[in-house]
User: Fold this.
Amino acid sequence: MDELRVICVECTCGRRWWGRSSEVGFRSIQDLAGRMVCRGCGARNVSVAYADHVAVPAPEPNELWASVEIWDDAGIRIQETMARVGNLGVGVAAYERTLLERPNRNVTLRDRARIIRSTARDRERRGKRLD
Assistant:
């Protein structure tokens, strides 16, 4: 397992977020305190604290992390998983093929929990551009 150092940042507005120490160049806590800005209110009075090392399991070489899924019309439940792959290029190809086969359905391409592409999100963006 690899180890990852995690930074916890808190603001007086109540917002809290985390980041990797590599994202801020492995700087000391004292150096970071004056440089960090709250993502919510924009204030500079944030407190920064390092968490302990966090054990992060290395990804399995044969892990199928990308999935192409068809959702119900409300976008609440997955009705069918069309593909599970370990390569983003293959995932995009499976997503595009699913769009051809089922053009009027809500389809997503996900990297575990992160949505990479979504027909519902694309329709929403097109609607905003037309206004």
User: Anything to note?
Assistant: The chain has two domains: 2-56, 66-130. The chain has three helices and seven strands. The mean pLDDT is 75.
